[in-house]
Design goal:
Blueprint: E1 2-7, E2 22-29, E3 34-41, H1 52-57, E4 62-64, H2 70-78, E5 82-84, H3 92-100, E6 115-116, E7 125-126
Parallel strand pairs: 1-4, 4-5
Antiparallel strand pairs: 1-2, 2-3, 6-7
């Protein structure tokens, strides 16, 4: 299976999906509990809320996030990509390893509830119900 982990422009885990610059994609062999090849995906769409189709086209079946608005999560699922939210900050490699070994567990979605992420979320509001950007 392929998992995607959102990254900041420095290459660290972007705990908020809306602040992602690109994605690390890992090949995970659940039976062997191993992490295989890693690649980077820099989607062409202008904002993370517009990325679901590109992520799905890359063969990703699971997106691992700390927080993600409801609208963006629904679009991801509509494209066939499951979302695991509530992951605490760690290195992308450790997150991938935890997934391979079956230790990765979601928690409270850091984007649950009404709030705004000015700047980090491209200046759109993630109020009640999730992402309200033009694409969410």
């Amino acid at each position: 299976m392929k998992i995607a982990i959102p990254l900041t422009d420095e290459g660290t885990f972007a705990t908020h999906y809306g602040a992602a610059f690109n994605l690390a994609i890992y090949e995970i062999d659940l039976a062997a509990k191993t992490v295989g090849a890693k690649s980077l995906l820099r989607p062409k769409a202008p904002t993370p809320c517009s990325w679901p189709e590109e992520i799905a086209a890359a063969g990703v079946s699971l997106l691992v996030v700390g927080g993600m608005g409801g609208g963006a999560a629904n679009r991801m699922r509509e494209c066939g990509v499951q979302v695991l939210a509530g992951i605490a900050g760690d290195t992308p490699e450790k997150i991938a390893e935890a997934c391979a070994h079956g230790f990765l567990r979601g928690g409270a979605n850091a984007c649950a509830g009404g709030h705004s992420h000015e700047g980090a979320c491209h200046d759109h509001d993630h109020g009640e119900g999730g992402c309200h950007c033009a694409n969410g």
